[in-house]
Specification:
about 260 residues; Alpha-Beta Plaits; 2 domains; 10-stranded mixed sheet; 5 helices; 10 strands
Amino acid sequence: MTMRIIKLSIEYDGSRYSGWQMQESAATVQGEITQAIFKVTGERVSLIGAGRTDAGVHALGQVANFGIEHSLETPRFVDAINFHLSEDIRILSAEEVAPEFNARRDAVWRRYRYLMSNRRSALYRRLRWEHHYQVDESLLREAAGMILGEHDFTPFCVMSSRKEDNRCMIHHSDWRKIGALWVYEIRGNRFLHSMVRSLVGAMVNVATVNKDDNALNLTLDEFGSMLTSSNSQRNPFTAPAHGLYLVSVGYKESGMRE
């Protein structure tokens, strides 16, 4: 058989995984799916993901692809792979795509969501950040608006993962409140290591009204200067991983639709 390229859409609860990327001594989402594919087909594949989510981060629409020489009908990959996966990872769809398709390289945008609440929950505590302080909505939304456009996000990237070019174009950035739940949505052409969590941590620090007296306080102007100056000092505020979700990934054939 000739090599087939299979594109997967994937949902997962990242709570018990050490991120997406395969590691020798830890359970990862990429590792679990790769092993499941092997159990189905008997072939070792290279699984390419659109985004390397960190430990504890979730996904509603991760995209990945792999090449394989196997005759299994494409739609059957969904149930066959899911059979060998734990319930916290689900393959949502499978389709055969062009030979040159690469889930990471061909992505033109990625959309992330962050959930935060000031209420304690027995059910949702692992799926959102429980921030037990009053937050100023207008400050949150103003800070989110500053992120729009192209900026050098060096201060919001893990130092060991910084690249020669750390500029990203952000198309959407906004907070909204649904009852006791705060929802942050961001969409951009690329994201740096821990960038969304770092931005959320900084914005929430700016907007928190009743901070502890001895806490570090970031002003709105200071946050803005991180986005506009060439300062490479690392932002010290990072939101917990378990509130973050990779929602969807866009490709050229689907335009810029969310």
